[in-house]
């Protein structure tokens, strides 16, 4: 008798998990495809012109969301009425914006100084934008809803 109760609770949990994953499966497939295309563009911008400096762009776009993720939980107290934001949250947004601007500007500076070619610059910027856009879309798609609001 005890085994029948365990089996039914496991089957209920299994059905629930399958329903959750099937609803988000197309989003995961699309995001993984776009991420792969973004990394492919960045790697091709390095390999086709035998210069591996554009690979730094992929690193900056992968690291860009980290300050937002780290400082997002550092909200202010709910009783203050003067300022809606929080210092640490604003610092995280500022650092993220700085890293994103660096990700777009670095290939432009390298192309202007003729360290990389213009084709590598364009492919690197396009691939980096796809990588960063995928990370943003993934975090928005799978964001947990807060129960406290």
TrEMBL record:
The residues that cross the membrane are 23-44, 51-71, 91-111, 120-139
A Pfam family the protein falls into: Vps55
Biological process according to GO:
late endosome to vacuole transport via multivesicular body sorting pathway
Q: What GO cellular-component annotations does this UniProt entry give?
A: Vps55/Vps68 complex
What subcellular locations does the record give?
A: Membrane
Q: Identify the main location.
A: membrane
Keyword vocabulary terms for this entry: Membrane, Transmembrane, Transmembrane helix
Q: How does it sit in the membrane?
A: Multi-pass membrane protein
> InterPro entries from the xrefs?
Vps55/LEPROT (IPR007262)
So what family is this one in?
A: Belongs to the OB-RGRP/VPS55 family.
Question: PANTHER family in the record, alphabetically?
Answer: LEPTIN RECEPTOR-RELATED, RH04491P
Q: What is this protein called?
A: Vacuolar protein sorting 55 protein
Originating species? Lentinus tigrinus ALCF2SS1-6
